[in-house]
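All the exercises in this workshop are built on plain-text protein records. A learned vocabulary of local backbone shapes supplies the integers on the structure line. Once this layout is familiar, the rest of the handout is easier to follow. An example says more than a description, so a record of this kind follows:
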Amino acid sequence: MLAVQQLEAGYGESVVLRGVTLQVRPGQVVCLLGRNGVGKTTLMKSIMGVLKARKGTVSYKGNDLTKRAPGQRAKKGIGYVPQGREVFAQLTVFENVLLGLEASGTKKRVIPESAIEKFPVLPTMYDRRGGDLSGGQQQQLAFARALASEPDLLLLDEPCEGIQPSIVDDIRDVIRAIKADGKTSILLVEQSLEFVKSVGDYFYILEKGTVAWEGGLGDLNDEVIRHYLTV
């Protein structure tokens, strides 16, 4: 479904990613791990097209998206929940979710039930401004906004960062439900090993901008964790 080949990207004259290659198969939850500053968010931005690739390719369902704009990638079926949520503070909750429909290129103004049913608190807040919500509520809103386009691939960058444990549990349940449904693949960046082990099928570890290790859940043992992830 998603294939990243020998990707190089960075900021200004700084190179952050060097020859990154990974793939996400249909229905998989693939987790991207690594210490702080190794390029995880840079990779997510490059896949979504927010950051242009300097070398290499990003392909989705056999189509080369490397030179495509973020909006074009969204219309191809890629949803994105960025680090920090990026909720539109002055828009209502309802308007924020509607933006997910805009990203898909559809002219429909009806939010799919599948985007909201996983976060039942959101419809009760439709008239509230996004900026008035708590961090956990904003994360649910960002998630629902991405799901509104009914994507085939969902990019989640640190969805549990800075939110209360009860919302973390809700997000875990949502990811498990998406996985069980089998229609949407997920590429997940998350620091919590306990969390990724509870949802992930396959794992990549970045170190100094390159893929240093990859494997399944059974391969992610204490030695690998100690060598690549322990601070």
About this structure: DSSP finds eight helices and ten strands in the chain. The two ends are 33 Å apart (CA to CA). Residues 165-181 form the longest helix (17 residues). The chain has two domains: 1-77+153-170+193-231, 85-151.
